[in-house]
Amino acid sequence: MSETQGHAGRMDSIYATQRHFYDLTRKYYLLGRDRLIRHLSPPPQGTVLEVGCGTGRNLIVAARRWPQAHCYGFDISQAMLETARANVAKAGLAHRITLAQGDATDFAPAALFGVPAFDRVFMSYTLSMIPDWQGAIAAAAAALAPGGQLHIVDFGQQERLPRPFRTGLFAWLRKFDVTPRGDLARFVEVAAQAAGGSARFTPLYRGYAWAAEVRRP
């Protein structure tokens, strides 16, 4: 079994049941997702890709927020994609949101969606669940069209919150194979340099979450 197949199997195992109540519970602690979507600001008729789209919740919010854009999303978990497709259809957005199964560390926009690159790519609380998260950042930045932007939000290091809170949260997250990435800012900068662009890093909510951007010229 390949590493990709192994990771896909783990995600399907974790979310086979959780996907049915995922959005109801995650809204209380996946902070900064809607802030990210508000900052996307794709160009008219632009393309927006979510890497690790999960239940499709973020794509639905993005499609409603930016009605002139066409949205795309992929996930490694087939179980999550089943839920995402049902949610997108229920929202009446199947004509504007296209879904596929893919690996965040190794994907080709043209092969998955017939699109050469994307004006906006975003990753919301996915990097903390991807073993090769540095590779996922590099792959997402490589999928940007000229002038494109990569937007990221994920768990921070809780640097301005009480130590017991950080210890308890990290212990709880480990139960779900979630690991906040302490080197996020550095690897975002590496990706920006590789793209010939610029990076921006913003701690949110006293470090509970971290937001980052890569802007390609």
TrEMBL record:
Pfam family, one: Methyltransf_25
Chain ranges of the Methyltransferase domain: 48-148
GO biological process, one term: methylation
InterPro entries assigned to the protein according to its UniProt record, in alphabetical order: Methyltransf_25, SAM-dependent_MTases_sf
Domain of life, per lineage: Bacteria
Alphabetized UniProt keyword annotations: Methyltransferase, Transferase
Any GO MF annotation of the entry: methyltransferase activity
Keyword 4Fe-4S found: no
UniProt name for this protein: Methyltransferase domain-containing protein
